[in-house]
């Protein structure tokens, strides 16, 4: 009798372990993983293609959350929509979407790009004040994207600075101190979003009071000296830029022998490094 009492708890323990193992095996096969998308609300909903589960019973996705809250959308179908209107999100608000799915299947989000930052700004005004301060005002920004400031020099648009965008729909004011060249200056700002297509502001032109810049080259060809501070680029005969910046002189002592071209002020010139 004592022997039977000893075996009974052991057998019960084995059954409990077996039940737990079966439960976790079922849970693991039911919940294989989740798809996570994060970004910012841009005013559009997500659409999901939802295949059948590998067991043939029910559909693959079984739970969707937005910022930690379970959605009330009907997901028990071959395709469903994640409706952000139910969460009363402001344009530009951060969003984290999690789609839990079963084993051996995976839902497909058809338009994940709607959560990615988009450039939507409209230029209200753009101008130059005090000869060197570019100011611009925008509206309808939906994402915090940087503004690149570009100046037209040497027959091309050149990046001269960057300012972080505010990403709000109302009126946004920005400013950036530029280095003008002599004569007529032309400037603009742009944003580039996930599509890689730039969005430009209007262009602004103004005539600077900056005097024309001249240069001298010392006899040893080790230094370029400008009559005043200017933006410059030095590039070799193959078109590769070897020096660039803003200053009143350029150290060229470490350049190899050869022909070099340099942009400065609003001009282009050249020199020969013989040793």
Please provide a written account of the structure:
With 275 residues, this protein is mainly beta. The chain folds into three domains: 31-115; 122-208, Immunoglobulin-like, CATH 2.60.40.10; 215-273. Helix content is 11%, strand content 48%. The protein is built from one helix and 20 strands. The protein has one helix at 2-30; strands at residues 33-40, 46-49, 61-66, 69-70, 79-82, 94-101, 108-109, 122-129, 133-139, 146-153, 156-164, 172-177, 183-192, 198-200, 204-208, 215-217, 223-236, 241-251, 258-264, 267-273. Strands 10, 11, 13, 14 and 15 form a five-stranded antiparallel β-sheet that branches. Strand 17 (223-236) and strand 18 form a beta hairpin. The longest helix has 29 residues, at 2-30. The N and C termini lie far apart (106 Å). 21% of the residues are buried.
Structure in a nutshell:
This protein is mainly beta and 275 residues long.
Number of domains: 3
Quantity of strands, as a count = 20
CATH homolog superfamily of the largest domain: Immunoglobulins
Q: And the CATH topology of the largest domain?
A: Immunoglobulin-like
The rough form would be described as elongated
Rg result: 32 Å
State the end-to-end distance. 106 Å
Low-confidence stretches: 1-8, 17-30
Which descriptors would you attach to this protein?
5-stranded antiparallel sheet, 3 domains, Immunoglobulin-like, 1 helix, 275 residues, mainly beta
Chain-wise SSE layout:
Layout: H1 2-30, E1 33-40, E2 46-49, E3 61-66, E4 69-70, E5 79-82, E6 94-101, E7 108-109, E8 122-129, E9 133-139, E10 146-153, E11 156-164, E12 172-177, E13 183-192, E14 198-200, E15 204-208, E16 215-217, E17 223-236, E18 241-251, E19 258-264, E20 267-273
